[in-house]
Design goal:
This protein has 148 residues and is mostly helical. It has helices at residues 2-20, 30-34, 37-67, 71-92, 100-107, 113-147.
Length: 148
């Protein structure tokens, strides 16, 4: 199995290297460059690799979760924790951080208040998870330093 994976990766690498020569020049206008065959082929290859990575991650993650004792319980705790953090982040976002009319006037971007609220929730979620990660790393370091 390991040998097959290596061969497939070598084939994909050779295809990507060949596609590199079909990429547009730097002085080509952006609209034409995005329509070129090299860019389209590279995007297709990237989407295929992304799909393979997502499927492999889900399959092996679910396999390990089910086969490990307590794995399902730990996964459930993690999912519930993320949902709680998402609820807090969504509750903290207001949706009125930026005016809808201002976005349309300045940037010619049409948006709604609910989209602004979801973006704010994403930023808040990032901040909550960042603080949690730093806190857990600090707690683990302090625990290790004091236990010796």
């Amino acid at each position: 199995m390991h040998k097959i994976i290596k061969i497939v990766l070598i084939i994909i690498s050779v295809i990507a290297f060949i596609l590199l020569f079909f990429m547009p020049d730097g002085d080509m206008p952006m609209a034409e460059a995005m329509e070129s065959g090299g860019i389209t082929a590279m995007f297709s290859l990237a989407y295929i690799l992304l799909a393979i990575a997502v499927v492999a991650t889900l399959v092996f993650g679910l396999k390990n979760m089910v086969s490990t004792p307590g794995g399902l319980k730990k996964s459930l705790f993690g999912i519930v924790g993320l949902l709680i953090a998402l609820g807090i982040a969504y509750g903290l976002s207001s949706g009125t951080d930026i005016s809808v009319e201002g976005m349309l006037d300045r940037n010619n971007i049409t948006t709604t208040e609910s989209e602004i609220k979801r973006v704010g929730a994403g930023i808040n979620m990032f901040a909550i998870l960042l603080v949690a990660a730093v806190g857990l790393i600090a707690w683990g370091s302090i625990k290790n330093a004091t236990s010796k």
